């Protein structure tokens, strides 16, 4: 099972095992970690699951994700929507930083 490291706005770090097929957002929400709001429930329509991808290899963001990230507060080149980061067996060492505010 892939492990995701979440660095939260308060500086705390949490390592969470997330089942394959679930997203980085799911791992946060299911473990009650603060900061990833996920208002749309993972349908890539709100940008409240904005994170900075520190480590981990995923497909390039879709055009839809890029457009939403344009409106995310504090977006940077390493910004991603955690609902679009789906974990599989090849995911090792995924690390994300949750911004202080999400969208």
Structural write-up:
A 5-stranded mixed beta sheet has the order 2-1-5-3-4. The protein has 103 residues and is α+β, with helices and mostly antiparallel strands. The protein is 14% helix and 22% strand. β1 and β2 (13-17) form a beta hairpin. It has one domain: Beta-grasp domain (Ubiquitin-like (UB roll)).
What layout of secondary structure does this protein have?
Layout: E1 3-7, E2 13-17, H1 24-30, E3 50-55, H2 63-69, E4 79-81, E5 94-97
Parallel strand pairs: 1-5
Antiparallel strand pairs: 1-2, 3-4, 3-5
Tally of separate helices: 2
For this structure, the quaternary state is: single chain
Q: CATH superfamily name? A: Beta-grasp domain
Strand sequence of the main sheet, in spatial order? 2-1-5-3-4
Number of strands: 5
Structural class, please?
Answer: alpha+beta
Write down the domain tally: 1
Average pLDDT taken over every residue: 92
Flag low-confidence runs.
none
Helix content: 10-25%
CATH top level class name: Alpha Beta
CATH architecture: Roll
CATH topology: Ubiquitin-like (UB roll)
**Major sheet attributes:** 5 strands, mixed
Basic shape: globular
CA-based gyration radius: 12 Å
Distance from first to last alpha carbon: 30 Å
List keywords for this structure.
alpha+beta; 5-stranded mixed β-sheet; 22% strand
In short:
Helix content is 14%, strand content 22%.
């Amino acid at each position: 099972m892939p492990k995701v490291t979440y660095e939260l706005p308060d500086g705390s770090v949490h390592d969470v095992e997330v089942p394959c097929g679930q997203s980085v957002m799911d791992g946060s929400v299911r473990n009650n970690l603060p900061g990833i709001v996920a208002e749309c429930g993972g349908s890539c329509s709100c940008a409240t699951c904005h994170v900075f991808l520190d480590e981990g290899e995923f497909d390039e963001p879709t055009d839809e994700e890029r457009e939403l990230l344009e409106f995310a507060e504090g977006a940077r080149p390493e910004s991603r929507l955690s609902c679009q980061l789906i974990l599989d067996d090849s995911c090792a060492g995924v690390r994300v930083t949750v911004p202080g505010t999400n969208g």
